[in-house]
Amino acid sequence: MTDEEEGPRHGPAKRRAKRRGRADGPSTIRDVAAKAGVSVATVSRTLAGNYPVSAETRQRVMAAVDSLHYVVNVHAKALSGRVAGPVALVLKDITGPSLAHVAAGVEEESGRRGRLSLVCSTKGDPKREDDLVQLMREQHAAAVILVGGTEPDDAYHRRMAGYAKALHSAGSRLVLCGRPPLPWNAPVTVVDYDNRGGAFQATAHLLTAGHRRVLFLGGSLGFSSSDERRLGHRDALRAHGIPYDAALDIAGDYTRRSGYLRTREALRAQVAFTAVFAGADAVAVGALAALREAGLQIPRDVSLVGFDDVPFAADLTPSLTTVRVPYEELGRTAARLALDRDDGPTSDDHVVLSTQLVIRDSVVRAKT
């Protein structure tokens, strides 16, 4: 008996479904089958598209689906391996402009491949990160992308290795985006960018312009990305024969307020400098406010360089010279490598994207 000939056998079921009126819950695949006059197997095959059915049968099934507002149980399909799992993006804060661009890149690449992307925020809580990774494992996510710098101590390494193994066992993949690689082999993909090289370019640009005392407003000590930028800054000083001065190296948060307070304190302490290298564009904005508050003009009195090249950098007055980080490409690459992976290690397991110095109007030659 063909699928099309099964209609009469479902008459009683069809009448029962009609009497129930679905007041007892959402429509099921059995309701769709009863309304279309076909078997449950035929509905399943029609929706999955993995078995040939006639055009007339497909039309009846889809009409029943629309009429009953039937929603496919995606979780059940994921368990059977017949649906592509989502790509989960886990980050500390979704409001930061740089991380928002990473999310845009992940969403673009995932969408291009027909994947749903999910964005989750940890607020910096490791326990919440643990819970989110476990939840994504249970939801059969195709990949879990952890974004943003971190403190890479032994406890962090052990936690990441645990994530990687747990996700791998569920057919998923851990991607560390903007984070350093693990010190031992683990089923993980790393997509990073050249913090050290970018910082070298920024400081070298100021030194080449004749500045010899550069106030460096770096990030917090022990934080992976900020430590790399600090190393790049010192590399440039060394390359140009400029002695390192601890009074010019002030660590802090990557926030506007921190940039303002650190610059104001340096001015009050009468630390001599002719240029500022801010470890993030938000820090540069705070430094700019403190310098203007002190009656200084940029770049006539003090030159200024940032890091990130977030959208507002070009709109500042003067427009900000900064290091461009390819945040959207970072997100696209993370999603692409996770979705294109195979079970074995490849040369693409660790990718470092380049950064670029963008020269605008906030730097002039030092006065002699």
Index terms:
6-stranded parallel sheet; 13 helices; 11 strands; alpha/beta
Report the portion of residues in β strands: 5-15%
Read across the widest sheet, the strand sequence of neighbours is 2-1-3-4-5-10
- What is the C-alpha radius of gyration, as a whole number of Å? 28 Å
Distance between the termini: 96 Å
| Major beta sheet summary | 6 strands, parallel
Textual characterization of the structure:
The chain is α/β, with parallel strands linked by helices and about 375 residues long. It is about 45% helix and about 15% strand. It has 13 helices and 11 strands. Strand 7 (about 275-280), helix 12 (about 280-295) and strand 8 (about 305-310) form a beta-alpha-beta unit. Helix 2 (about 30-35) packs across helix 3. The radius of gyration is 28 Å and the shape is elongated. It starts with 10 loop residues before the first helix and ends in a 10-residue tail after the last strand. Mean pLDDT is about 85; it is low at about 1-25, about 80-85 and about 345.
